[in-house]
Design a protein that fits this description.
This protein is of the alpha+beta class and 259 residues long. It has 2 domains: 50 residues, no CATH class; 174 residues, Transferase(Phosphotransferase) domain 1 (Transferase(Phosphotransferase), domain 1, Orthogonal Bundle), CATH 1.10.510. It is built from 6 helices and 9 strands; from the N terminus they run E-E-E-H-E-E-H-E-E-E-E-H-H-H-H. A 5-stranded antiparallel β-sheet has the order 1-2-3-5-4, with helices on one face. A hairpin with a 2-residue loop joins strand 7 and strand 8. The longest helix has 24 residues.
Length: 259
């Protein structure tokens, strides 16, 4: 039997506990594929993701515990530093690059692949799945929803949460956020990633991503998932419409209204 188990909060996909220097969570048909992916990207130098150790005697997956702080709500002010924004873009780019060509035998992913399947997407690279040390990004966790997809699909969601465009990003904070300019911060993130996507392209992908996420959240709620998933879905749909409007306005020719 494992030693003392410490519940880790913040997720809504499954129960997660810490046992010593490891993390245990429910496994699924996708777990061997995700573990093969983690081993390969770590072998290629991306050690900021957990190391996989197979299953425990209860059939739960085992991965290494990454020490540090995982932001909750209200979000700490240090989360929004430009250094963290750039670090996130660089880490996501390294993770994507390390995943090129990875195709585990008999691969089973928790989420469906999306075309073009350029890389293995994390699919939830957001602050609540990021580990920070001394206020700087040091790791990326909760990789069980990874699956093949376009680079921009992943980056768009990171921008949604870290630029940020999410309606709940500043819920409950007591500090001033008026100086944060999400569209400009989006440009900084894209620049750090090292891609040539325009603001319009990223916002368009973000709106599509949020619409997809709303449907996914509703389906999980219908299947017995947490009731708050319906509230999340409603926010995603509202945010998707707002972001799509920003994309349309930013696409207007010079002389028109822009963001």
């Amino acid at each position: 039997m494992p030693g003392n188990e410490e519940p880790l909060t913040g997720g809504n996909m499954s129960e997660v506990v810490r046992v010593g220097d490891t993390v245990r969570r429910s496994a699924g048909p996708w777990t061997p594929t995700v573990h093969a992916y983690l081993r390969q990207v770590r072998d290629r130098g991306v050690t900021e993701v957990p190391e996989p150790f197979g299953l425990d005697e209860r059939g739960r997956e085992i991965v290494s515990f990454l020490p540090g702080d995982v932001p909750g709500w209200p979000a700490p002010e240090w989360l929004w530093s430009e250094a963290n924004l750039r670090d996130a873009g660089r880490l996501l780019r390294r993770l994507h690059d390390a995943s090129v060509g990875i195709d585990p035998p008999g691969a089973v992913w928790r989420l469906p692949a999306r075309e073009p399947a350029e890389v293995i997407c994390h699919n939830d690279a957001a602050p609540y799945n990021m580990v920070f040390r001394a206020g700087r990004l040091a790791g990326l966790i909760d990789v069980d929803t990874a699956s093949p997809g376009p680079r921009l699909w992943d980056l768009a969601y990171t921008a949604y949460r870290l630029a940020p465009f999410a309606a709940d990003a500043f819920a409950g904070v007591s500090y001033e956020v008026g100086h944060l300019d999400p569209p400009v911060r989006l440009d900084v993130l894209v620049d750090a990633y090292g891609a040539g996507w325009s603001r319009v392209e990223v916002l368009g992908a973000m709106a599509e991503r949020l619409t997809d996420l709303a449907a996914f959240s509703e389906a999980r709620a219908d299947d017995g998932g947490p009731a708050e998933l319906r509230e999340h879905a409603a926010m995603y749909r509202t945010d998707a419409a707002r972001v799509a409007d920003l994309a349309a306005r930013s696409a207007r020719p010079a002389g028109g209204t822009s963001i």
